[in-house]
Structures are given as structure tokens and as C-alpha cells.
Design brief:
single chain; 3 helices; alpha+beta; GTP Cyclohydrolase I, domain 2; two-stranded antiparallel ribbon; 4-stranded antiparallel β-sheet
Length: 129
């Protein structure tokens, strides 16, 4: 498989576009390189989104995420790039990417980036007794 094929995010039609529902995906083995030291950085990525017409295909997502393994990137930059790429591919109603990076030098870093489709409002949460 070529690098271009690995980087391609794929989609499939939302099976219930008439309804808001949340898809949650945990990616526990994300790695990239520290741009200052070249040392590996490890993170848990938590993706949550409300699809509109398209959903992201999981195998393609896995192959896309692996492409960051040899790239130097600041935590803030890589989190926003992944979110931007996913939004460009799926055009969701809402998407949140939380990147929880493992400790380095005694410091944990978490980066949360969000996208909201213009005009979309979340449904009111129903509180059950």
C-alpha cells in the first residue's frame, strides 16, 4: 500500500441521517515525534462526533493515524490537523478530538479541539429519574 493510500480517509453513508447520534472512537496507540528532541510522543486520542451525511471508515482512520508515527509535531498542531482532516472528509454536525499525551519530563498534556457545523444545535439532554 502506498503512502498516499494510507493517508486517505474514507467514509460511508450515515445509516440514520435523520437523527443526531454520537459516535465515540478511542485510539489508544497514537504516536508522533517531538519536533524538538525527535523522541516519540504517545497519546490516547478520543474522537466524538455527530455525523451529518457521512461517517468515517475505521480501517482507513487507523491507516491515516499511523502516518503520524514518523512525523515531528507539537501536540497542539497535530491535534488540530487531525481534526481539520476529519472535518474536511466527513462534514460532521459536531466533532471533538481530545488528545491525551503521556507524561514527558513530568508533564502531561491534553489538547481538545472542536468543530460545530454552522447552525447546528445539540438536542436537549433528557434526565431520567
Amino acid at each position: 500500500m502506498s503512502k498516499q493510500e494510507k493517508e486517505t480517509l474514507e467514509t460511508f453513508p450515515n445509516p440514520a441521517p435523520e437523527r443526531d447520534f454520537t459516535i465515540k472512537i478511542d485510539i489508544p496507540e497514537f504516536t508522533c515525534l517531538c519536533p524538538k528532541t525527535g523522541q516519540p510522543d504517545f497519546a490516547l486520542l478520543e474522537l466524538e462526533y455527530v455525523p451529518d451525511q457521512l461517517c468515517v471508515e475505521l480501517k482507513a482512520l487507523k491507516l491515516y493515524i499511523v502516518t503520524f508515527r514518523d512525523q515531528g509535531a507539537f501536540h497542539e498542531a497535530v491535534t488540530n490537523k487531525i481534526l481539520d482532516d476529519l472535518v474536511a472528509t466527513t462534514s460532521p454536525r459536531f466533532m471533538r478530538l481530545t488528545a491525551k499525551f503521556n507524561v514527558r519530563g513530568g508533564i502531561y498534556t491534553s489538547v481538545v479541539a472542536e468543530h460545530r457545523m454552522e447552525g447546528w444545535q445539540p438536542a436537549t439532554v433528557v434526565a431520567l429519574p
